Amino acid sequence: MTVTDGRGRAVRAPGLAAWLTRIAPARARGEVGIALVSDARIRAFNARFRRRDQATDVLSFPGDAPRTSPLAPRASLGDIVISSHTARRQAKDAGHSYATELKVLALHGLLHLLGYDHHDPADRGRMARLERRLRVRGGLPAGLIERAR
Prior knowledge:
The chain has 149 residues and is α/β, with parallel strands linked by helices.
């Protein structure tokens, strides 16, 4: 797992990659890229890929299918893009650290990479339940879905 600025340069996010790897569901096998970007950059991605011309906190871009051979390189689960500006504001509003907010957003993004979608009526709360279970395992005060309610 790598954490970059979205242009391939490593950024400091102490413990984020290790934490997400530790609490991820067993079926989350593959590489994940996390990019910390500006509000302007995530707004551009949101407009281009979701047709919503506004900044958001986290976007997920699924990667290729998992490899079946143990000799093949690990497949890419995809990329998680987080607005560092929005994450800082949300951390302040929630009364916790920026590092904690990055974990909240990375977990939420990972679940989307795994195919969960809390906006889809067919989800029936599955994503919220899994997010709650994993955030408790990871020591987070609340998940993104819980907080939005």
